[in-house]
Every structure is written in structure tokens, then in C-alpha cells.
Design goal:
CATH superfamily of the largest domain: NAD(P)-binding Rossmann-like Domain
Order of helices and strands: EHEHEEEEHEHEEHHHHHHHH
Distance between the termini: 52 Å
Helix content: 40-55%
Number of helices: 12
CATH topology of the largest domain: Rossmann fold
Radius of gyration: 19 Å
Strand order of the largest sheet: 4-3-9-8-7-6-1-2-5
Shape: globular
Length: 333
């Protein structure tokens, strides 16, 4: 299959390298030093104590890649609107577009079947540019349960986990989503197919909308947040509000809040992706992870005072870092 990974950072790069390793025709869209490194040395993957080199085509121009069988949007949610107008050049009649972003996706109410069918979320699709550029019939949703990091330009290190949960937006188990799942399984990933992709999104979002901004504000790891009484209580209050929003929109939560917090605690001294971005001085995924939950709350008529307060603090933090042009990190000693 012809596969294009748009935004081959840590997760996208891992996916591209594993698919290329089984002989798929892979193109990656990368920029700057990553582009130079991949062109010169291939896409290097460090995994299970070994290094492999994937030979992939690399370009910084989406239009140069040509039509693909599968397009994976591997960048963060706030980066999608900038590339969305160029995505149609990658599509033929049967191309699948796989969204691999954390948080609430731009297509949340598309093929939803509920009272808000087709409603656009301004928080994740400002001005509707993504919805106008990417035909929703091409989209297959995914939830990424993989930890990886860019060790150096063109070098991806796999840290843990290997699951991409897939799902059609309307819950159908189609031939194309089965084919996509088999492709990922052949590359060594777990790829279950969800009957309700939105329920699965909320399982991960439930933690992301609480622990990510708390960690960004406090510079604490998951285990520290969960074991400090005040932040554990704040996380529980935020999760309770998020659960009310989800349930008002028809989402089923299958585990209690205490069990979800215990799961985060068990991860240990892990820095969330938002905290890592704060330290690196990068834009944070605030709108997809939290701003969109507030927008969904307004749509559903659910009050979210704790989520709203933390969102305001995190927005100010993001503004401060952006204006400073540098990250914020505590130095030891």
C-alpha cells in the first residue's frame, strides 16, 4: 500500500518506520533538520535494544507525495488546520485518512447520529478549515496508546505500548477498517476495532483533560499528582465534570474515577506530553485536550467550574511561554 504520514514526529515516525519495515511504500512529510536527517540516513528506529533503519521517501511538500492509499495525520491537533488545505492532493477515490491526534477530534459530531449531528467545534477546527478540506467519508478515527520520543533528528525511540485503537465514525465494522487493522497488526501493533470510537476517545481524554494541564502548571509527574492530596482531589473534581459532559452527549464511562486515577498513578514518574512541551517551549495541545471539553460542556448545558479555572491558568501559562520564546524547566541542584 502507498502510505503517507503527515507529521512524522515521534508517533508518526514510529508508525512510518514499522510500516516501511514490512515492505509498505511509505512517504513521510517532515521539515527542517528531521527532513535533512531522514534523507541522508533514513528514518532510524530504536526499539527493544536494537536499531533499524527504514528507507522512506521524505519531503516537506505534501503536494509532491501524490495520491495515497492511507494518509495518517500524525501531527498534534493544533497543527492540523495549517496542513488541511493540502491534504486533498493525497487523496484518490478510496484513500483513508487516519486521525491520530490526542483529545477531541474535529469530526466529533460528524456521523454522530445525535441531536448535534454535523456541528463544528470551533476549539479544534477554527473557521471550519479542516472540515472543508478533508471529506469526512475518508476519515477513520484512532486513539494512540504508544509512547515514543525523538531522540535526535530522524531518530525515533520507542518507549512503551503499541496500540492503535481504530473505529469508523458511525461505528460500522467496514472492510476498509478491517484492512487497516490488519495492516497495523502486520507491522507489530495491536489494533482493536472499536464499536463506539467516541467512548474510546473519552477513556483517554478523561485523563488528558485533567492530568496534562495540572502537570503543565505544577511540573509534577503523574504519580506525584495522584499522591498529593490536593491535586488528587482537583483531578477527581475535573474528571467528575468531564464525565457529566460526556454522559450528557451519550458517552458510556465503564470505570469509576478512582480506578482511572489509580491507573494514572501506576504509570509512575511520567511527564505528560503537555509538561514536556512546556519545558521545550512548544505550543501545548490545550484546545484539543481541555478547551474542546469546555465547548462540549456548553453545548450539553453542563457546568464545568474546575475545568474552566484550570483552563484559564493553562492558557495564561501558554501565553507567557509563547511571549518569552523559551521553555520553562526546573533545574536540579
Amino acid at each position: 500500500m502507498k502510505i503517507c504520514v503527515v507529521g512524522a514526529g515521534a508517533i508518526g515516525g514510529l508508525l512510518a518506520a514499522k510500516l516501511a519495515a514490512i515492505g509498505e511504500d511509505v512517504t513521510v512529510i517532515v521539515r527542517g533538520r528531521n527532513l535533512e536527517a531522514v534523507r541522508a540516513n533514513g528514518l532510524r528506529l530504536l526499539m527493544d535494544g536494537a536499531e533499524t533503519v527504514a528507507r522512506v521517501r521524505a519531503t516537506d511538500r505534501i503536494a509532491d507525495a501524490g495520491p495515497q492509499d492511507v494518509v495518517v495525520l500524525g501531527m498534534k491537533a493544533h497543527q492540523v488546520p495549517a496542513v488541511a488545505p493540502d491534504i486533498p492532493s493525497l487523496l484518490h477515490a478510496d484513500t483513508m485518512v487516519v486521525t491520530a491526534q490526542n483529545g477531541v477530534p474535529w469530526w466529533y459530531f460528524m456521523k454522530h447520529g445525535g441531536p448535534h449531528e454535523g456541528r463544528r467545534l470551533e476549539s479544534v477546527d477554527p473557521g471550519g478549515v479542516v472540515a472543508a478540506s478533508i471529506p469526512v467519508d475518508r476519515v477513520v478515527g484512532s486513539i494512540v496508546y504508544v509512547a515514543a520520543e525523538m531522540e535526535a533528528p530522524g531518530v525515533v525511540r520507542h518507549v512503551e505500548q503499541n496500540r492503535f485503537t481504530l473505529g469508523e465514525l458511525d461505528g460500522a465494522e467496514t472492510e476498509r477498517v478491517q484492512r487497516l487493522a490488519e495492516l497495523l497488526r502486520s507491522a507489530g501493533f495491536r489494533a482493536p476495532i472499536a464499536r463506539s470510537i467516541r467512548d474510546e476517545i473519552w477513556v483517554k481524554l478523561w485523563g488528558n483533560c485533567t492530568f496534562n494541564p495540572i502537570s503543565a502548571l505544577t511540573h509534577a509527574t503523574l504519580v506525584d499528582i495522584c499522591r498529593f492530596p490536593e491535586t488528587r482531589a482537583l483531578a477527581a473534581a475535573m474528571m467528575a465534570e468531564a464525565q457529566k459532559v460526556g454522559e450528557a452527549l451519550g458517552v458510556e464511562f465503564k470505570i469509576p474515577i478512582d480506578k482511572r486515577i489509580a491507573g494514572a498513578e501506576a504509570v509512575g514518574a511520567h511527564k505528560t506530553s503537555m509538561l514536556q512541551d512546556v519545558e521545550a517551549g512548544k505550543p501545548i495541545e490545550l484546545e484539543a485536550l481541555l478547551g474542546a471539553v469546555l465547548e462540549l460542556g456548553r453545548i450539553a448545558g453542563v457546568d464545568t467550574p474546575h475545568l474552566t479555572a484550570v483552563y484559564g491558568l493553562a492558557r495564561l501559562l501558554a501565553k507567557t511561554i509563547g511571549e518569552a520564546g523559551s521553555g520553562l524547566r526546573f533545574a536540579a541542584g
